[in-house]
Amino acid sequence: EEARAKTENNKFGKSLSEYARKEEKLSHEVEEKEESIAKLTNERDANAKHVEVLKLEVQVLESKLKDVQNAGLSNIKLLEEMQAENSFIKKEKSSLEDLLKKREGKIASLQQDLTGKQQLVSATRQALRETRASLKDIT
């Protein structure tokens, strides 16, 4: 019976030692998994922060894009206004050039009339002088 008790005691000791090794191995695996979980959690948190940064960058880029689009629309409107103004100026210039040509024609016509009248005045003065001279000779 003592031999049987020793055998059972040895079996029990071996089992205990085997369980202790298994517990140590499992504890080590648990620690590794906890470390992995902590590492992955840190990576996840870092990735979440990176995603937030990227979202902010996207918002900034979208805002800049809207500004550029608005500036483009403003530039298009300014260009249309400039074209309309340019068209108006061309029409106004054409009208003023036509008016200037008419006035130049009128001035040329008046100068011709003036020259004709000056010649008439000159001829009349000459005739008057001649008539006075003739009258002096008669008197």
Structure explained in plain terms:
The protein has 139 residues and is mainly α. Helices cover 99% and strands 0% of the residues. The protein has one helix at 2-138. The longest helix has 137 residues, at 2-138. The model has no long low-confidence stretch (mean pLDDT 90).
Q: Could you name the key traits of this structure?
A:
mainly alpha; 99% helix; rod-shaped
Cα distance spanning the termini: 198 Å
Helix percent reads over 70%
Shape: rod-shaped
Instruction: Find the structural class using helix and strand composition.
Output: mainly alpha
Low-confidence parts = none
Strand content: under 5%
Strand runs, count: 0
Biggest sheet features: none
Mean pLDDT: 90
